[in-house]
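BUG: 3D viewer hangs when loading the predicted structure for this chain

Environment: internal workstation, default settings.
Expected: structure renders.
Actual: progress bar stalls at 90%.

Input used:
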Amino acid sequence: MKISKNSRRLPKAGQGPSKQLSSKNSIHIKVQDGLFSVQGLDKWYSNWQEPYHLMLTLPWLGFIAIVALLYLALNIGFAGLYLLGGDCILNGNGSFQDAFFFSVQTFAGIGYGVLAPKTTYANYIVVIEAITGLFAIALLTGLSFARFSRPTAKVMFSKFAVIMPQNNLPTLMLRAANQRRNQILEAQVTLSLSRDEVTTDGHHIRRFYQLQVLRSHNPVFLLPWTLMHPIDEQSPLYGFSAESLAESQSQIIVSLSGIDETIDRDVHARHTYGANSIILNHQLVDIIHVIDERNRYVDLASFHHVVPL
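Structure tokens produced before the viewer hung:
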């Protein structure tokens, strides 16, 4: 079905010659269900060359496992250094067990007073281990705080965007909902269109257009928010059909930002609609219902539902 009578069709991208690039110098982009996905994007294992980002993106279980392994490795290493000094621990029997537990007490600054260094060599190792422990504890505290304090927005977007007549104009509609029972203040939203195009010189490019939203600012984002873009003659979507949207690998990218009232921090959320998720001649199911003059309720169970006109 066409949005307007003058539907435009674009040549498919990727018809030109392709080059085989090594995995080291290339970024693998896959198109599935109308959406572009970059291999390794936002995956913790893609940050293995950057330890700080790796420790921030690791799952909590992996983070705890790495911290525990590093802690054991450091203490085992210092225990080995104490053993190299011979019988250098007071009240110890020269065993690896005594050296390891003495290292644990020194590393954490516990100091029970039972085991203690009794040679100059052991005191030098204690100084080095104490300094290492201070840096390790400070680093672990900073990483843990950074992980806990990362602001996140729990925003839900409708699975489908619909195009339906509104005020005698075809209008792109989608909606968002704040899943937390708090408020996002001064919420701002932007809609962008991304699609393949061919220049007059015959070059295939990926071009982005900003779509005008009827209400792009919400002072208090608490209830579901329906975003609308009228498809008039100034709209980049004007004249496109469902077939041309799929052919040009069109995507609608919605970005939402605001201030979380609870933590007083900026939060962001993003969602992408592929051509398969943009449905023509359908409407979003109404989810706000009136009980009486003073009471209403929101039915989030129907949040993603659409029905044909």
